[in-house]
Amino acid sequence: xxxxxxxxxxxxxxxxxxxxxxxxxxxxxxxxxxxxxxxxxxxxxxxxxxxxxxxxxxxxxxxxxxxxxxxxxxxxxxxxxxxxxxxxxxxxxxxxxxxxxxxxxxxxxxxxxxxxxxxxxxxxxxxxxxxxxxxxxxxxxxxxxxxxxxxxxxxxxxxxxxxxxxxxxxxxxxxxxxxxxxxxxxxxxxxxxxxxxxxxxxxxxxxxxxxxxxx
Length: 215
Known about the structure:
Blueprint: E1 48-54, H1 57-65, E2 71-79, H2 88-92, E3 99-106, H3 113-122, E4 131-132, E5 135-136, E6 142-146, H4 149-168, E7 177-180, E8 186-188, H5 196-199
Parallel strand pairs: 6-7
Antiparallel strand pairs: 1-3, 1-6, 2-3, 2-8, 4-5
Helix pairs in contact: 3-4
């Protein structure tokens, strides 16, 4: 893990990042192990995409596929870094700059983007910087990657609301970044990571919420 002078994790520079590769180094399953839908597409007509980084992506992904309706598929991967087509071992060094991210494909006629944002904000502690629970590193930082101006505005609006609720509960400042997804390519993770907690329901995941509701 890349640490700064104070022994806290720090974001790498582009010069420090591994060179990466020209294509994925592994295969990605075609079908979601729980929902039975396409992981990489094509997605249903009218579906929209949301992207959230909120710590360990195993537990984060499960939160979204367990929603009662509207979510068509979920897919974990790496986003927000420098290295093209990174592999897991590279990401965990902190040198690629990527965050563990969940792509959520949803039908906005059945579930709103703001409902997804509620799951995001309440599903982790967005005040921890480069940490979620026992997991430490830039790869477990909190990020909303937005796919439209409307998503960006909703993310900023709910961040302000959640900050007020967290402050009232004694928490510090939210460290979540809100950035356009189009500026940060998404690289799917390997089959090992897709729907991992479906295969191992008791598997480890360090992400957990604060218990504070988004008001």
